[in-house]
Model the fold of this input.
Amino acid sequence: MLSGKPVSIKFEINDCCLKFKSTMSTFTQILYHIVFSTKNRERTLSPNGRTELFKYIWGTIEGHKSHPYWINGVEDHLHIATHVHPSIALSDLIKTIKLSTTSYIKDHRILRYFNGWQGGYAAFTCSHRDRNTLIDYIRNQEEHHKRVTFKEELIALLNEHGIEFEERYLL
Done:
């Protein structure tokens, strides 16, 4: 017994060795809404290169045993809706996305004026039942940003999720 609770442990014996078998698996459903911007919020994510960029990010996420639901953005930032595999640290995934896309963009010259990503990111967990609402929100970024700036959007998201911040650090 561990911590006063019974634990089920099974062993399997075959020709060469004794194998430990656990009866518990890992189950997660953590939907992340990830947001990050270009360096200095420069408007360098031109429409003609974004589709290829988003496809590359999609493959990067899948390559990390995770499931992307939607990726979109505008000239100065992007949004990702994704489930992240429990063995993957969110910060490591975002670091990989930023580093690999920077190389990809430069090597394939898909965004002529791209100068890198801003340090940091925003990430929020969302309920699975709100997945379609989140996807629609990300899908409609171009329309949304005809009315709202990125800074206004980020402040609203931080407030909505109860995250304290100092506006001077939002750049």
Notes: The first strand starts at residue 9 and ends at 13. Helices lie at 47-62, 90-108, 131-139, 141-144, 150-160. The mean pLDDT is 90.
